[in-house]
Amino acid sequence: MTRLTLSDAQWAKIAPYCAGKETDVGRTAVNNRLFIEAVLWIVRTGSPWRDLPPEFGNWNSVYKRYRRWVKSDRFSKLFNALNDSDLEYAMIDGTIVKVHRHGQGAKGGLGHQAIGKSRGGMTTKIMAMVDALGNLVDFTLLKGQQHDMAGVKPLIKDKEFGALLADRAFDTDWLLLDLEERGSKAVIPPKRSRLKQRDFDKEMYKWRHLIENFFCKLKDFKKIAMRAEKTDESFAANIYLAATIIHLR
Fold first, then answer.
1. SS3 letters for the chain?
2. 48 FRET partner, CA 20 to 30 A, in 14, 157, 173, 224?
3. Is the pLDDT of residue 194 over 80?
4. What is the CA radius of gyration of the chain?
């Protein structure tokens, strides 16, 4: 059996938010569960769509449906519908993924996608925020050579959290001031170059490993570990789906 089968409990939570269910206006979709598992198989194995096992149906039909979901932001809506983050405190960090040659060549060129050239070649950076349980709250995509700080503002915008945990790369005056104005605790080690070293909660900082754990789980999905999607919207859709499954485990 090829299918990466969702458990009944997982499917029960996902099903109400799938497009084309029986309660929706218009045509009822054929087997939403099989479709989700087909996309999961592709994202987990990193295989080309043409290699989709026939038990999932015609690969081209599944792919076209996947693209409709991507364009309508269905995967992000699914993630947000099931996102019950515990923001007692939050963690931010970034991770680099290499871009497979199949992930290059989008219309408009690489300048229109979060793909850049760094020491490791063509790369994309995933900047993420996770909650106190290590579940994804939000993410943004950057070109691989961009500094992590470039992704901080969109991640913390309009969010409330008791404390923010991050490594010393995020020790910048504007972020510390922003957190102070929010009434949020900054659990960020000071850079060694600071003339006046400040204190931080070393015990709470130990929990920062949760965001590293999340990145490890995310990269179990091979189509994310090595970006094979030409467009940011498709790559983001893969991350939303993977994060949803990680959250429901």
1. CCCCCCCHHHHHHHHHHCCCCCCCCCCCCCCHHHHHHHHHHHHHHCCCHHHCCHHHCCHHHHHHHHHHHHHCCHHHHHHHHHCCCCCCCEEEEEEEEEECHHHCCCCCCHHHCCCEEECCEEEEEEEEEECCCCCEEEEEEEECCCCHHHHHHHHHCCCCCCEEECCHHHCCHHHHHHHHHHCCEEECCCCCCCCCCCCCCHHHHHHHHHHHHHHHHHCCCHHHHEECCCCHHHHHHHHHHHHHHHHHC
2. 14
3. yes
4. 19
Torsion over CA: 95, 101, 102, 104 (sign): positive
pTM as predicted:
0.93
| Residue 26's pLDDT band (cuts 50, 70, 90) | very low
Position 184 confidence tier, pLDDT thresholds 50, 70, 90:
very high
| 97-125 mean pLDDT | 87
Smallest CA-to-CA distance from 235 within 245, 224, 226, 246 is with: 224
